[in-house]
Fold this protein.
Amino acid sequence: MLRILLPLILILPWPARAQDDACGAGALQRQQETLAGYLRLDFADDMETALANLFRLGALYQAMALDCGYAPNAAEVNAMLERVLDYASLDDLIAAQSVGDDVEAILLELQDVYGDPLTGQLLYNGLEATLGGNPLGCAGCHENEAIAPLTAGTWTRIDDARLKLPQFADYSHRQFLVESIVRPMDYITPEYAEVMPEFYGSQLTIQQLADLVAFLESQDQLLETDGTKDLPHQP
């Protein structure tokens, strides 16, 4: 649950520790003193700013503790949940964790995420729930070539056909796949209907998207057609 809560709790960014010594006693003391000096608590002269700084200090101190290995107990997690739910709906929580549809930003974030093709296969086949608790319907369409291109050969069709089109000349395989998932209506291959849902970007975490992409990148089977009915911008 903390992955969902932290984007809402931490309103000031705090970089994850790069080295173990960032969590040493001296380093933590300096960080705490720097934050306290910057976010001053002058309740007598400026109550509004002081309360805002008090909230931000608490959030940043929590981030420091979590980055250095502190594991909140059940009571603390429940308190965090109750507090966040006072100010945010379940839809807000889901939106905070979803990848959205900004392909450029997603590709940057994916650089630091390892995708597991086995988990991606579970997601693709509707055996693993998304952020909203609902399964994806990928396999339902992509196992019937009359509705959508078959799953098998997805990567091969991208390599042999899609990236050879002028509009995708500067695309990488990953960019094509990501755009296909979060913005599927940007391109539809002739002979296929516009059937792929456009809301997957609001239902997937960056890890889930990385897993899906890894699974689709593994679909490099040889094509059995002449390539005239290839992959729509929907993997």
User: Anything to note?
Assistant: The mean pLDDT is 87. The radius of gyration is 23 Å. Residues 182 and 200 are 6 Å apart (CA to CA). The chain has two domains: 2-97, 103-217.
